[in-house]
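Dear H.,

Thanks for agreeing to be a second pair of eyes. The structure we're designing against is below in token form, covering all 317 positions.
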């Protein structure tokens, strides 16, 4: 128990035989239950986890093995469902590769204990050394995805969207449909969008970036960014539909739609006109006017839509 709240830890694992012991052996005493999800590893993660569950039986460790690989999101969903069954007041996700510092647990869960947030997540970018400590390709990829996730999720104050160190309260755990959550690396982005649809409060907590502890990442940033960008794009429309049309209504949807239609037409037509002016010769004034009108109104629509969205979500900090 932590300040009279029961605390569950979900540990998604894929080939973590060298790392999992470190994760479990460093957990603080106030942890009530641990769910290790072995995502169909090829190594001895499952056997090692089972022996850890005997060695550290005060943590009530349950080890679940996926018969097929589901991805990190699928593993987290399995863990969440077990925590939900146990009615854990707070459920924290800590990766099985020891990249999360257990000393930071109180920082992550206190806002939930004090009912200041429904979901908290670590943010590695607040640290002054983030650029030095995080591999550069990941840092840049993360920044792009974080910006897109702000737009898609409506949590404009949340950054480091790909961080996996998170805590969730029982109410949110009971509300989200875990079978629908995205199963692979886009899981954090997907979950933020779902939380926003139900107006849950999300807080970023500064944490230390930890690299070089023997972890082997499954992420290939170059392939990941286009794939996740497509997912985030889809999630954006999913949220607009569910939050501002189905569950409630806000005209910002129309602002976004008009903006997304008018701005690209105006912008690309403008580019074409610039090319024509340079390489061919004079262009029609009305064409230039047409392009300018579309670009300017489209841009206004987009910026207003963002502003309205920010305003609607500002109480969810
Ligand atoms: N790569 C990978 N990791 C998984 C999978 N299922 C669960 N995980 C776990 O998810 C966590 C985060 O994955 P990792 O590749 O370290 O991501 P990163 O820390 O963001 O680079 C680790 O604890 C993995 O063991 C899977 O299918 N593939
Ligand atoms: Mg990792």
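And this is the sequence the design step returned. I haven't edited it by hand at all.
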């Amino acid at each position: 128990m932590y300040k009279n709240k029961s605390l569950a830890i979900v540990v998604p694992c894929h080939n973590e035989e060298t790392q999992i012991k470190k994760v479990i052996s460093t957990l603080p005493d106030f942890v009530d239950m641990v769910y290790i999800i072995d995502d169909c590893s090829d190594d001895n993660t499952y056997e090692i986890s089972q022996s850890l569950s005997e060695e550290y039986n005060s943590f009530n460790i349950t080890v679940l093995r996926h018969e097929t690989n589901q991805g990190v999101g699928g593993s987290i969903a399995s863990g969440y469902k077990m925590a939900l069954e146990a009615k854990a007041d707070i459920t924290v996700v800590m990766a099985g590769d020891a990249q999360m510092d257990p000393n930071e647990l109180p920082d992550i869960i206190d806002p939930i204990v004090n009912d200041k947030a429904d979901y908290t997540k670590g943010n590695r970018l607040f640290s002054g050394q983030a650029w030095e400590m995080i591999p550069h390709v990941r840092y840049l990829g993360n920044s792009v995805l974080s910006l897109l996730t702000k737009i898609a999720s409506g949590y404009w104050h949340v950054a480091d969207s790909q961080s996996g160190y998170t805590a969730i309260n029982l109410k949110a755990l009971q509300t989200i449909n875990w079978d629908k959550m995205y199963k692979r690396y886009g899981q954090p982005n997907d979950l933020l969008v779902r939380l926003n649809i139900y107006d849950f409060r999300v807080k970023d907590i500064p944490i230390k970036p930890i690299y070089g502890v023997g972890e082997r990442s499954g992420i290939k940033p170059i392939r990941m960014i286009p794939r996740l960008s497509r997912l985030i794009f889809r999630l954006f429309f999913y949220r607009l539909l569910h939050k501002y049309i189905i569950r409630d209504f806000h005209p910002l949807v129309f602002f976004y739609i008009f903006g997304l239609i008018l701005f690209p037409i105006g912008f690309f037509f403008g580019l074409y006109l610039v090319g024509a002016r340079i390489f061919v010769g004079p262009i029609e004034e009305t064409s230039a006017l047409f392009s300018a009108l579309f670009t300017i109104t489209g841009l206004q629509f987009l910026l207003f839509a963002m502003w309205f969205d920010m305003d609607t979500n500002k109480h969810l900090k």
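Two observations from my side: The beta strands are 7-13, 33-38, 61-65, 90-93, 119-123, 166-169, 202-206. The pocket of guanosine-5'-diphosphate (ligand 1) is lined by residues 12-14, 16, 39, 69, 71-72, 75, 95-97, 99, 164, 215, 217-219 (CB under 6 Å).

Warmly,
E.
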